[in-house]
Amino acid sequence: VDFWIDGATRDPNNDRVFVTAGGTRVTLNPPSADEASIRTTITITRPWDGAWQIGPSDEQITIHAPWVQTRWRDSLRVYSSYMGGQIRDWPAAPAFHSSAAWPGFAYTPTIAAYDQASGSGIGLTAFSARLRQIEPIAWTDGNGVVGLFVRITPRLDRGESDTVALELRRFASGMPDEFFASYRKRFLLPWAKKLGIDEASCDASGVWVHDGWPGLVGANGLTSYQPGNLIRIAEMCRARGAGGLVIWSTGERTAPGAMYENDHREYPWFAEYAEASKIFDGRFGCLIAPQAIMRPNAPREYIPGVDDAPTNLRAGAARRAVTQLRDDLRAAGVRFAYWDAAQNPADQHGRWWVEPFDWLGLMMEWREAGITVFPETSSDVAVFASGATLFYPANPPLGDMRIPRIVTPRGRIFLMSPMENDAWRDDALRRGFVPFIWRENFLR
Prior knowledge:
Blueprint: E1 4-6, E2 9-11, E3 14-19, E4 25-28, E5 32-33, E6 37-45, E7 61-64, E8 68-69, E9 76-82, E10 86-89, E11 95-98, E12 106-115, E13 121-127, E14 133-140, E15 145-153, E16 161-171, H1 177-195, E17 208-211, H2 229-239, E18 244-247, H3 273-279, E19 284-288, H4 316-331, E20 336-339, H5 356-368, E21 372-375, H6 380-386, E22 388-391, H7 403-407, E23 412-415, H8 422-430, E24 434-438, H9 439-443
Parallel strand pairs: 17-18, 17-24, 18-19, 19-20, 20-21, 22-23, 23-24
Antiparallel strand pairs: 1-7, 2-3, 3-4, 4-6, 5-6, 6-16, 7-15, 8-15, 9-10, 9-12, 11-14, 12-13, 13-16, 14-15
């Protein structure tokens, strides 16, 4: 009974070492086991020899846990960690069940298979202390066989190594809740303690409202803004019972393809932030996109002193620009910041646009300054460090989504959907989430 590597060749001199097609060496360290679990670590090394590619490799490594056989019955389920957790049927035909990638759309680096009637089952965790991208997957054969495995995108430079911990754990009852409680205790909390990360909390509640360009400024853009419009919007929303208000930035003045400008002082409504914040007792925020600084086409005139291709948001001129943004917003009464498109430190191809601990570090620095950053559709490590995230698109009907309540109980999950309606809002509130509603729909 052992873990195994898919699509790799075993080293003839060491049967615990595998070599991938890209030349990466994967050492499968000897497992340890007891009645409840099988555990191991893998060491992934990208050698200098024969590595022609310059920069980190995009190669994926697939690692399987031991397969499990049970008697098929219609109460069998797979639990995916996608967007807070989704229960999926175990069909009477072969099927794959993916959780997307962690940290990101997969809330935890876990996948589980269990009997919904008895609560017994198994769960696989693959944890990377350096936040390497991990996609947990289940395969079911339509009878009673289940295989749990992960795809890891380690993004190693030549000569670099890293270690990932793997654990397959069996539960006689209480699945899937006991599995996620075990993950928090055995992986998340020790990782955070070692790094000195205190668990964040967030006091957001009720229905929150978002608004922005063009709703805030009108069809003609910045020049058509009527002074006091932000205050009027804040007063209307507060009078109707909104718990908080977040203002989107405008992309009007950015270069084509850039995200959003990061100098809010340029907005004609910036002077009204403080008054709007008072109306909501500090539960007021705005959109940020500091990663736009990293893009070559970002408008340089709004980011003084930043080179054309900064590589670190927390160093040099880029850090000064981000710190200036934070301090400006803090002084203006902003206490929440929605970090657009920042679910993880990697882009859609798995390439890091910012080092993982710079991604976490930025959220923690803003938190220490009194601003809760909630990145878009992020994971347990982000919520643990910052206090919140926003799931988008969290369309109705909402999935099970129990993982945040168990793994990050002090955090808050905002939900936003283009299909928002009253039933969706009420369901979100009943389950302790914070529905995030467009201003016109809220007032309607």
